[in-house]
Amino acid sequence: MKLKKTGFVLMSLILLLAMMPAMTSATSKLSIVVEVNGNLISFPDAKPFMDKSNRVQVPVRFVSEALGAEVGWDSKSKQVTVEMGEDTIVLTMGKKAYTVNGQTKQMDTVAQQKQNRTFVPLRFVSEALGAKVIWHKDLYSVEILTGLAAVQEEKKDDKDDKVDDTADDATSTLPKYIEDSWGRKRRVEGESQKQTAEGFSFYNSYKSGLGASYESVDGKDMMFLQSSIHFDRDGVDYDQQVKDLDELLRQKINSETVDKIMKYVKQKTKRDDILEAKEFSDKVYGIQVESRYWGNIVVSIWYK
Questions:
Q1: Which domains does the chain possess?
Q2: What are the Copper amine oxidase-like N-terminal domain coordinates in residue numbering (predicted)?
Q3: At the N or C end, where does the chain have fewer CB atoms within 10 A?
C-alpha cells in the first residue's frame, strides 16, 4: 500500500512539473508592461502581446498618444503611416518591408490586425522615431526613452563601452545618482529641484523610489499629475513610498478621500498583486489607482 501511495505521489509531481512551463508562459503573456520615460502606460482595451517572432506588438494608438506621433490609416492599401517631426514611417499589414523617410527596410515580423485593432511592432517603430527601446526579459517589460532621455542613454552606453573597468578614477566623475541592476540612473530629491504645479509640490523622483510627473492641461477631465510606487528598481523603499504618496496627496485632496485611496493602495505590497482600476473623488479632483500584475502602482489625478 505504501509503495502504491509513493508511486501516485511521484506521478502527480511529474505531471505538475510538466505543466509548470505552460502555466508560467500563459501567465507571462497576460502582463507585458510598457513604460515611456519612467511613466507606466495604460492600455484599457487593446493590450500589447508577444507575436510569433518574439516581438512586442502594441496598438497603433499607443504610438500617437505615448510617443506624440501622428498616425494615418489607408484602408485600401492597408497601410499605417506614422509621422513625427521630419520622420515618416509606412508599414503595410502582413508585410515585412517598411519604409523610413522613403528608404525601404526589413523587419523580422509584420504589422497586423487583431480583434479589429491595428498593431505595430513596438521596437521597429519606436527606434525609427529616435527612441531608445530596452527589453527587460526577467520583468517582461519594455522601457522606452525619448528625446533627451534617449540621447543620454546612448551617451551612457557609449561611455560604458569605452571605460576601463579596472581604472579606479574612471567612475569618479560620474554623477552620484541611484543606479539599479539594469544600469539605469535616476535623479533623486536633493539632486533635482522640487516642482510646484496646480498647488502640489513634488519631486520627479524621491529617495524612496516614488516617481511623479506633471503635464500642463487646459480644461477639466484631463490628467495633470501622475505618481507611481515602484517595485521594479533596486533600492526602493515600499513603506516610505507609501508615506511620500500620502503626503503628496494630502497637500490638496480631501483627507477622507486620501484615507480611502491609501487603504486601497496598501492592498498591493508585492509585484504580483493586482489592483483593478478604481476611481476616487472629492469636490475638486478625480483620482484613479491601478496596478497590473507585475506592474507599479499608478495614481492619476485630474480636475473634475
A1: 33-136 (3.30.457.10), 186-303 (no CATH)
A2: 36-144
A3: N
Is residue 170 within 8 A of residue 178, CB to CB? The reply is no
Sequential DSSP letters for the chain: -HHHHHHHHHHHHHHHHHHHHHHHHHHHTT--EEEETTEEPP-SSSPPEE-TTS-EEEEHHHHHHHS--EEEEETTTTEEEEEETTEEEEEETT-SEEEETTEEEE-SS--EEETTEEEEEHHHHHHHTT-EEEEETTTTEEEEE-HHHHHHHHHHHHHHHHS-TT-TTSSTTS---EE-TT--EE--BTTBPPEEETTEEE-SB-TTS-EEEE----SSS-EEEEEEE-SSSTT--HHHHHHHHHHHHHTTS-HHHHHHHHHHHTT--STT--EEEEEEE-SSEEEEEEE-TT--EEEEEEE-
Per-residue pLDDT of the chain (304 residues; tens, 9 = 90+): 444 444 444 454 444 444 444 444 433 344 688 888 878 888 777 888 889 988 999 998 887 778 888 899 998 999 999 998 888 999 999 999 999 999 999 999 999 998 888 999 999 998 888 888 888 877 778 888 877 655 666 666 554 444 444 333 333 333 344 444 444 444 444 445 678 888 998 887 888 888 888 776 665 666 678 888 988 776 789 999 999 999 999 999 999 999 999 999 999 999 889 999 999 999 999 999 999 888 889 899 999 8
Interstrand relation of 297-303 and 285-291 (parallel, antiparallel or unpaired): antiparallel
Phi, psi values for residue 23, rounded to 5°:
-65, -40
Half-sphere exposure at residue 78, Cβ-oriented, CA atoms within 13 angstroms = 13
pTM: 0.46
Residues near 83 by beta carbon (within 8 Å), at least 6 away in sequence: 69, 70, 71, 72, 89
